[in-house]
TrEMBL record, chain B:
GO BP term, pick one: transmembrane transport
Compartments in which it is found: Cell membrane
Protein name (database record): Transporter
Any one GO CC term of the record: plasma membrane
Domain ABC transmembrane type-1: 78-299
Domain of life according to the entry: Bacteria
Organism expressing this protein natively: Glycomyces algeriensis
TM helices/strands, residue ranges: 21-43, 82-103, 115-132, 170-195, 224-243, 278-302
Amino acid sequence: MSETRTENPRHPIVSPEGENVVPLGDSGNRGPKPRGATRLRRARRTTEDRVLGVLRFIVIAGAVVVTAGPLLYGVLLSVRPFQSVMSEPLDLVPSLDEVTFDAYPTAIAEYGLGGNMWNSLQVALATAALAILLSVLGAYAAVRLRFFGRGTVNVVFLGVYLLPGIVLAVPLFVLLSRVGLTGSLAGLVFVYVAQTVPVALYMLRTYLVAIPSSVDESAMIDGCGRLALIRRVVLPLALPGVAATALYVFMIAWNEYLFALLFLVADRDRWTVSLGIAQLTEFSVPTTVLMAGSIAITVPVVAGFFLAQRLLVTGLTSGAEKG
Amino acid sequence: MRRPLTISQREDLHGRLLVGPTVIVVLLFAVLPFLAVVLFAFLDVRLVDIPRLYIDNLVFTGENVAAVWNSPRFWSAAVTTAVYAAASSAGAVLVGLAVALALRRPFRGRGLIRAMVLVPYVLPVVAAATIWKTLLNPGYGLVNAVGVEWLGWAEPIAFLTTTSRDLGPFAVPVALLCVIAFEVWKTFPLAFLFITARLQVVPEDVEEAAQIDGAGKTRVFRHLLLPELAGVMALLAVLRFLWSFQNFNDIYLLTGGAGGTEVLAVRVYSELVVRANIGTASATGLLMTGMLLVVVAVYAWLIRRERA
């Protein structure tokens, strides 16, 4: 996906009319096929077809079990009493009178996950807001304006995207400690913004390309300045895409672990959710509480993802068409 | 009085102004740190030295790089990392391909399954690792319970700490396989997404013509679909390799580097945090980046040769 962005500002996924032609939903494929013709042509299913049919079913069933299974397992464990989890690991589905939600308040209040969630919320919101602000401006420039150094900027962003996070973590830790920014949530936000801006810019470009540039021109002729044009014309038109990108950045910031671990581990009041859960596993905290905590920090992310799934998918895969 | 700018001059100025803030953040928090890593790799500097770190009292040394280069632990971590990255990226692309093909033709409920398949990719890694650790726990984990109760295992297996286990004539690297499985599980959705998107633009008429001429599905796949998908699969494999090669979170959270799973990223972390040595941590990171650059260069060269 990264390859295309350096050289192909108009992604082939976008039709000349400017609408996205490849939604990933059920309706995305070509029109209905003439069923009768298919049946006539292949009146008898060959052995090959039958084997492949069975394989297809196995792959789909396996994918469902493997992807949804662990999450469901976490949910089920989180509502069972700790004793029963220990003694009966195979009784996955708790009986109705056994179900207890005690692990959730325990994780959130007693083990401080509530505070962690508040920290993560602040960090993730700030990161998403800043990254969107920067990348809307940058993506607009990358899509619409010819300026000196455009190619270089693209290459640098691609490079940043591929640089190992763990390698950057060493100097960032040293430099930010030197200026006293470790142990503050602000330092974390800056690092996250730098890490997410290239992706956000790349995703936003896809959405902006879909807006016909005649819109810009007519606004400019009407005397609209560049910034006003972006705010009043381009942004409203690309709003769904901007929202999806913001959500994606929010998720990355909410889920991030390495930098939170390096910067904040000494300061329990500033732990983020990832750090909070990971530190809890170090102590002998009941598994049910750990599961409840894991599910609690997962719910916002998965809910947001299901809400914006279609848009996110188009934004992420736009480079794939070219291959 | 200044002359008003021409349209193209104005475009140039506006373009630079609009990209400017992003460039500054990226320079400060990505490019500058990378230059600092190169510098630190040749400095004699430890964590305790940070408050006294000034640009004019740096002590240069080549010892960090030499120490890392001559350390057997570094090279064994490098091998582990390469195996881990190659196996995870190949696994992710192949599983992604299988699921994309299986979900290619519409059926009732496909939309929901497609969305569900993407869940591992968006889960917080810490939550996912915690659930996997519970699943694989020797005491109360589901996998061991099933194994002992129904599959006749003599005893539970400590999956995440067992370096190797004899299975007939083979020594199976248990913990390494577990972290690879975790990475495949977490990243195949991305491969699935990209391959699905590519599948949707494969021209359908040729495929239909081949089927009318009696070509079975396997042959259609091998001769028509696979060449279409080869490009995106190669790109995905390379990208996944680059990302898995630098993966820290998953392995650190699951095993902490125990059981033969110590990869380079975990070495960088332990040099920095456990041994408190910024110099050797940076040198390890620098060598690691060098290895990644080699992979990128080889890929770019292959692509160029292909196009020529």
